[in-house]
Amino acid sequence: MSNGSSFPAIVARSRYFVNLPAIRALLIQFISFFFAFILLPTIWLLFGIRNDIIFTSLLQGVIAMSLSYWRQMAPWWRPIQFVFPCALVLTLSLQIPAGFFLAAFVFLLGFFWTTFRTQVPFYPSNSKVWDSIEKLLPHDKQIRMIDIGSGLGSLILTLAARRPESAFIGIELAPLPWLISRLRAAFQKSTAHFIRGDYEHRSLAGYDVVFAYLSPAAMPALWRQAALEMKPGTLLLSYEFSIPEASPSLIISPEFGGPDLYGWRM
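Above: the chain's sequence. Below: its structure in token form.
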């Protein structure tokens, strides 16, 4: 009985893993590799094009980009899929020592190790955004604010320095940005507090302001969590990415161009 009941769970986990965008992209590259080699003899016979590694990588990139479009992957995956085979060939031709790749892998893993699951890349905001957020904060009382996906902690450190009477918390899942933000807070003797963890597993009920700079894929789940947990009168802010299910209460457009800052009064 236990084997039968566990089999659907195994199937469900397998489907979830295969449907992760990064895994789908990798599978598409493998499929494109075999399609390219199947098509090469025909291309040579019809057009007389010499089958070298550069042409093969370009052909694989075109196939991978087409399959990504067909499978309705996010638009930014298409140029990545096209460039990847050529970049791989170029990197191998440079004959870089293997130790360099191991060091680079470990470093990048510290920043992006959960991106394949969360679909939220590491991409920090800027000082113009921080100024806009500060103007939106209530100034007649102490507040608690959390930055979900706080990265290197610059926003939280800046606001903690400007508003020392209030509590500013950052939560980050990737270990290296979290460690850097903790070290920065300690060096600056800041009151900012940084937590390593997944915001989806932390209640938003205790915060007056919640800020997010995530990705379009994460916004529907964030809205469901915020609508369920945040108290009336609190403020949800999102830089660049709106929420399809809810019209924003406010939109702040930067003076010198760039993405908008969206806000929802709960």
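DSSP finds ten helices and seven strands in the chain.
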